[in-house]
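Lay summary. Proteins are chains of building blocks that fold into shapes, and those shapes determine what they do. In this project we predict the shape from the chain. Here is one chain we studied, written as its sequence of building blocks.
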Amino acid sequence: MENNNAVSALAALAQENRLAVFRLLVRNAPEGLTPGVIGEQLELPAPTLSFHLKTLAQAGLVTAIQEGRFVRYRAEMAGINALIDFLTEDCCCGHPQLCIPKGKQE
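And here is the predicted shape, written in a compact code that computers can read:
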């Protein structure tokens, strides 16, 4: 991941509604949700939600899948994993295994 991609992803997540949308999609991975369900659960009007989904998609954090007449949005886990890897690649003096969050260690 390049610096500009990381900045784009972080900027997309640095807004309350977009962060809520992304977290909702992560909770519903890998199936994803339709915009109607997302809007209903987060109480966001369609135009507002559309704007936020477009921003998240441009940042590589969500993907849209056409299913007949409907569109389903899914969290792009590869995108968020790439961001996490980018942010932690120099962690712990070159020993990233030491940076595993508490509760994630085996």
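What the prediction tells us: The radius of gyration is 15 Å.
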